[in-house]
Amino acid sequence: MRAGPMSDLHLLPQDSFAPVCAGVVGAGYVGLTTGACLAHLGHHVVCADIDEERVERLRRGEIPIVEEGLAEVVAEGLSSGRLTFEVGAAAAAADADVVFLCVPTPQGADGGADLRYIETAAAQIAPVLKAGALVVNKSTVPVGSTRAVEDVLERPDVAVVSNPEFLREGTAVYDFLNPDRVVIGADDRSAGERLGDMYAGLNAPVIITDPASAETIKYAANGFLAMKISFVNAIAAMCEAVGANVDDVVEGIGADQRIGKAFLKPGPGWGGSCFPKDSRALVKIAADYGYDFTMMKGVIDVNDEQKRRMVAKVRRAVGLAPGRGLKGTVVGVLGLAFKAGTDDLRDSPSLTMVSSLIAGGARVRAFDPTVDVAPEGAKATVLAGIELVGSVREAATGAKVLVIATEWPEFAKIDLAELATLMQTDAVVVDTRNLLDAAAVRAAGLRYDGVGRR
Ligand code: UGA
Question: Which pTM does this prediction carry?
Fold first, then answer.
């Protein structure tokens, strides 16, 4: 996996660089990262969101999400005057030569992507777009959506291109400034090149193709990455059955350069705001065009099964016979975010596991460094019913089982000797991230169960 140190913040525009007036619609992790990084590259950016409070906070340099390096690039843009924040899509588009659409495309009722935010944004910018402006679709959208945006805009003088993002939450700024490639889908090649020039400060190949191929590249990339993880999780299950060690198996297969080691870390299953919705959307798009994507369905099934396997580990840890409940069992859970480096709880495998444990009668005490003990707003709704605590110690105290659900680096440094004194006798650590050294946990007097480890 690419590392994420913020080493490239001083990357300078090239001589041929021509600053562009850009508008960004949506100040979520994609839009905010895109806007701030474009300003960092030397462009003039107006970034807009419908949430007035969010815009107010951003104007003060307050970042609403956990995202490494974002505060620095936003602060830089605010102080240089190249980054400003406004309310509403039209404000972003009015003076822009290039407008980036970075709004959510949540999963719709039929498994496909819900395009209502894209369509609304397109309708709002249509009347104010400058003649000859370029509209860039960065949101993940089904094949054919570039055309759909053109239809909503009804502006023949405006070109619409697709420019999928490949930003990981938690390392989005690093990924933006150090891309493996820039993908642009344009019917009109000169429009594609115009956008490509905006990224001239980045040292990355620019692939210009047609819109349908660019849209497919995005889904294929996420689908393939999800497939890698499901594959390694399935291999981990096999390792447990045959008495092999998945760490060594990954080392062995990863040494083959055709395979590589990246994205082969076994875990509790993939989650987050992208893989779950994009993998389902891929199946749906294929079905809409008459292709039964059974392989992708299998990837999703393995992922669902993986989360159940983790809960089964807890049951096994306390010696429960099939069908018996977990009533009275105290389970500490470390980590609620879907992965480390983010406070995002969307489709988090940890939450799926916690709900299942609670439904089975367990008393769950959970700690995550990015979650308050008394959360507010949307987070409070998502976490309703979970007993939140403010430290690893509190989560572990009196627990029979401690589940490591998110790979926060601080969990790797737990004082194991102290942990053993805090937990019940004969307690178990269920390490769904293979974060701890199994031998060290056992040496501290605890039992240990990882994923695919002997
Ligand atoms: C993912 C892609 O990696 C980005 O390239 C893409 O731009 C983004 O979706 C998107 O479509 O917007 P993200 O969801 O932020 O990024 O997170 P990842 O780092 O890809 O992790 C996804 C899930 O896979 C997490 O639950 C993570 O814990 C899990 N994972 C990842 C593993 O279990 N093992 C691994 O080896 C890697």
Answer: 0.94
